[in-house]
Write a structure and sequence with these properties.
The chain contains 9 helices and 17 strands. It is an alpha+beta fold and 362 residues long. The N terminus and C terminus are likely disordered.
Length: 362
């Protein structure tokens, strides 16, 4: 093996008259060392950059949603569903795993992606305006409101006055508000124009419904009621008859759970849990409007089932709401659970057991 003197003064081994291709045989001078590892570092950095760019490109090309996309306006928002009025003037009810009732306001523009299975629509993703969906903080509501009036509405529910009276009393006791008699609001509403139709709000140029125009009569009515009764706000209470899903003797609907059979009956009939049915129930939907027609607060929650099983035979009997009204502990438990965010209880009671509203065994 011969020794060759390099240009930088170092020695390099020569094999058959050529420089050795093995880096380990090169003299370990600082310059050669830095040159070799510098090239290694640049090569590794370039490779990492290529991997990151390729991964980002693939992620961007991958479809984000697989469901049907719909753009429209939110018309009804419950703890487990949202109804969208789309640009084809169709109402689409979509079930959700998250409660959007305190995040999405009425007539808020939304874009949803949903899938359908067994005739039921399930939400995949949703985009809604964050700022527009924010309601007024409850602290500010309590500070700026001293007098309110209740506008009750009942849709297929008998004896709804008991719940309206209980809500009014709860707000008077815990928020310190003066609550005007609801008869005044009902009388003013009866003199107002009839229910507005989507046909009245269709833009003749585009053929699409203007949701702001569609909701304007409702906002105007709330402003009129507040001005004529000299109140700071109007609490609209709608009591709606709905169907509640029943499984294992427990009814579930609109953020509410209630047994429809006694605990004894459920223990003696364990096979009942494999079945699934439904029962009629009542849901309370509340909207608090300001004098200017702005929606300050809203809440939708189930109230009570309208049918319970009697005895061990599994037969249902009709359950009047008076049975619920007469149970003070159950009523207080529901009022605090529903209205505590708007008006925290001043003198709360010990919460009832999770199994609320037990049906009669008669």
């Amino acid at each position: 093996m011969k020794i060759l003197v390099t240009r930088d003064g170092g020695n390099a081994p020569v094999i058959s008259g050529k420089l050795s291709p093995f880096p380990s045989l090169q003299p370990k001078t600082p310059r050669n060392y830095l040159h070799f590892w510098g090239r290694r570092f640049l090569s590794a950095t370039f490779s990492c950059a290529v991997v990151v760019i390729c991964a980002s490109t693939l992620a961007a090309q991958k479809p984000q949603h697989t469901g049907t996309k719909v753009e429209g306006f939110a018309t009804i928002v419950t703890p487990d569903s949202i109804t969208v009025f789309d640009k084809k003037n169709q109402m689409i009810e979509i079930h959700t795993d998250k409660d959007y009732s305190a995040l999405i306001g009425i007539a808020a523009p939304v874009t949803v992606w949903y899938t359908s299975e067994g005739g039921v629509n399930h939400l995949e993703d949703i985009v809604y305006p964050k700022q527009a969906a924010e309601f007024v903080p409850p602290d500010l509501i309590r500070q700026n409101i001293k007098r309110i009036i209740v506008l009750p509405k009942s849709e297929g529910v008998d004896d709804s006055q008991g719940l309206v009276k209980a809500i009014s009393q709860y707000l008077a006791d815990n928020a310190g508000w003066y609550v005007a008699p609801p008869e005044l609001a009902v009388e003013i509403a009866s003199r107002a124009q009839g229910p507005n139709s989507t046909l009245d709000a269709i833009d003749p140029d585009s053929g699409k419904v203007d949701m702001q125009q569609y909701l304007e009569p409702q906002r105007s009515l709330m402003t009129r009621i507040a001005n004529e009764t000299r109140t700071d706000a109007v609490l609209e209470i709608r009591m709606v008859k709905v169907k509640a899903t029943v499984r294992s003797g427990i009814a579930t609907w609109d953020d509410m759970t209630e047994p429809v059979s006694s605990r004894k009956a459920r223990s003696l009939n364990p096979w009942e849990g494999f079945g699934k049915g439904w029962v009629y129930a009542v849901t309370a939907e509340m909207n608090l409007w300001s004098q200017s027609g702005k929606l300050l607060w809203k809440k939708r929650r189930g109230f009570a089932v309208l049918g319970v099983q009697s005895g061990l035979g599994g037969k249902y009997r009709e359950r009047p709401l008076k049975e619920v009204y007469d149970d003070n502990a159950v009523m207080q438990h529901w009022l605090e659970g529903t209205l505590s965010q708007l008006a925290p209880p001043v003198h709360g009671i010990t919460p009832a057991s999770p199994e609320v509203l037990p049906p009669s065994s008669k």
